[in-house]
Amino acid sequence: MATNEKLGSKKTEEVQEKENFVTKTLAFFNKYSNVIYGVIIAILIIVLGYILFNKFYLQKKNNEASAMMTQPINWLMAGDTASLNMALEGNEEFSGFLDIASSYKITKTANTANYYAGLCYLKLGQKDEAMDYLKKFKKKEDVLWYACQATIGDLYDEQGDESQAISHYEKAVKSEDPYFTPITLFKLGQMYERKGDWKKALDTYKTIENKFYSEYQKMGISQFAERAKAQAGK
Which residues contact 170 (CB under 8 A, 6 or more apart)? Predict the structure, then answer.
C-alpha cells in the first residue's frame, strides 16, 4: 500500500513538473511574443532575400560573365605572347579575364577567371602575378581547383618552400583525375624523399600503383618505390 502511495505521489509530481514547464513556456512566449515573431520574420526575410538575389541577380550576372569567357579562353589556348596578353586584358571588342574577374566578383565565373588569369601569367613567365591569381581561385570547380593546387605547389617548389609545396600537393592529390594526379603524386613522393620521409614517399608511390597502374608503369615508378622501400626499412 505504501509503495502504491509513493508511486502515485511520484506520478503527481511529474505531472505537476510538466504543467509548470508548460505554464512557464507559455508565459515566456506571451511575454516575448513580439520579439520572437520579429526574429522569425527577420529570418524569413533574409532567406527570401537570398533566394531572390541568387535567382534574379546572381545567376543573371554569372550567365553574362560566362558568355564573355569564350574569347579569352581561345586566346589562352593560342598560347603566344600577344594572345596571352589579350586573354588577360581583352581588346576593344572582348573583355579579358582580369576585367571579368573584377567586374563580376561574386560570381562563379569570376572565380574561374582568376584561375585562367593565373595560367596566363604563368605562361608569360610572370610567376608572382600567377601565384596571386591562382591563390584567389576558391574551391567551386573541383577538377580545376585540384589542378590549381598542383600548380601552386610547383611554384612553391621553385621558390624552395618545401613545406608549402607539400601542403598544396597534398591537397591536389585528393583528386581522382587520371592525368595530373599521378604526376602530382610522384612530385609529392619526391618532396617526401628530400625531407627524408621515406615511409611517406613509399606510400605515395604505392598509391600511384594501386590507383593509376598504367601511369605507374609508364612513369617507371617501381624503381623509386623500391628505393623508398629499402630506405624506409633501414
Answer: 188
